[in-house]
Amino acid sequence: MPLYPLFADLAGREVLVVGGGEVALRKVEALLHAGARVRLHAHEVHPALAGWIDAGRLERLAGDFDPAWIDGAWLTVVATDDGAFNAALAAEAGARHRFANVVDDAALSTFQVPAVIDRAPLQLAISSGGAAPMLARRLRERLETELDPALGALAGLFARHRGAIRTRLPELGHRRRWFDAVIDGPVLALLRAGREADAERAFVAMLDDAGAVPAGGRASLVGTGPGDPGQLTLAALRAMNLADVLLVDGAVAAPVLALARKDATREAAPDDPAACAARVREHADAGRHVVWLRPGDGFREAPFAPIAAALGDATWPCEVHAGIAGPDAGRSVDA
Questions:
Q1: Long-range contacts of 50-58 (CB under 8 A, 24+ apart)
Q2: 121 near 155, Cβ under 8 Å?
Q3: Which parts of the sequence belong to the Sirohaem synthase dimerisation domain (predicted)?
Q4: Residue 256 CB contacts under 8 Å (≥ 6 apart), including other chains
Q5: Percentage of residues in the chain with pLDDT exceeding 90?
Q6: Mean pLDDT throughout 166-173?
Q7: Sign of the Cα pseudo-torsion (204, 205, 207, 208, in order)
Q8: How confident is the model at residue 324 (pLDDT cuts 50, 70, 90)?
Q9: Nearest to 235 by CA among 284, 173, 299, 183
Q10: CA 226, 231, 236 angle in degrees (round to 5)?
Q11: SS3 149
Q12: Alpha-carbon distance 226 to 279, whole Å?
């Protein structure tokens, strides 16, 4: 079953943790980092947890477990090795319409805790839906080495100047292109070098000169191949992720479309090639990057092959990204 990704603001909110061992320690540490008000129930507690209780960082609930404790909690985390108790507690939480995570038991849990890459305020979460937590952790380890440590500081700059960005760049497409220019420009390199003040000055200068960002009218005609996302070209993926508008042929496979930019405007492509070409021209003339998606090698086959040439008189560029033709494309010759 697919999970709905959710980042919870737990600052100052009560979370109930049941269990006092190493696993509970890791869960409590993450919750305290998020600013949660942790209440802990356990007959025995890890020495580090005991120290945090003595320091007033969390509250310990004494005596036998009281299901009413769940009522005051936004979330409940269960980290005991008693399967029958865990199941009963999960049932109590469900009856009270409260989310509960039973560590290492996806079937009993109503929320999962993902593997997290922290570049505060930027966070990336990876979940296997409880099916393969070690796989999620391995992916996190790989991404940790690939993601620039300075991305958090860059996200902080965007956050501090959010109001000014929206005021200076009210048009969404122009704002996207400005963001791309900042991300690909000198600001990140300055942050990486530890030159925070210089990075902020460069960021503000780019915001002051935001009108110089090109209007960005552009057309990309993308053949999406046989419907296998793994057979899309890198150029096609980049176009799909930079789109302001997606014109989507009804035969484009859902797994392919799932890779396109989520906040791009999506329109059904007209059946008539000339009508769709006119729609492409309308969007690009308005300064938008419009991406037209068709299955197979959609724009090198009749009757769509002449469209790029027909759009060649425009001031903005029109590019064709070839796709693999035919439903059997990519099949092994030994299949």
A1: 52/28, 57/32, 58/28, 58/32
A2: yes
A3: 150-207
A4: 224, 225, 227, 228, 229, 232, 293
A5: 67
A6: 89
A7: positive
A8: confident
A9: 299
A10: 100
A11: coil
A12: 25
Q: Are 266 and 219 in contact (CB under 8 A)?
A: no
- Three-state DSSP at 151 gives helix
**And the tokens for 17?**
């943790």
Closest by Cα among 74, 77, 46, 42 to 60: 42
Could you tell me the pTM of the whole model? 0.69
196: which residues sit within 8 A by CB, 6+ positions away?
153, 190
Integer angstrom CA distances of residue 199 from 54, 82, 124, 185, 186: 42, 53, 24, 10, 8
Instruction: Give 106-145 as a DSSP string.
Output: TTT-SS---EEEEETTEEEEE--TTS-HHHHHHHHHHHHH
pLDDT at 20 over 80: yes
Q: pLDDT tens digit string along 186-242? A: 898 899 889 899 999 999 999 998 777 666 688 999 999 999 999 998 889 988 988
Q: What is the pLDDT of residue 224?
A: 94
Residue with tokens 């930027």: 122
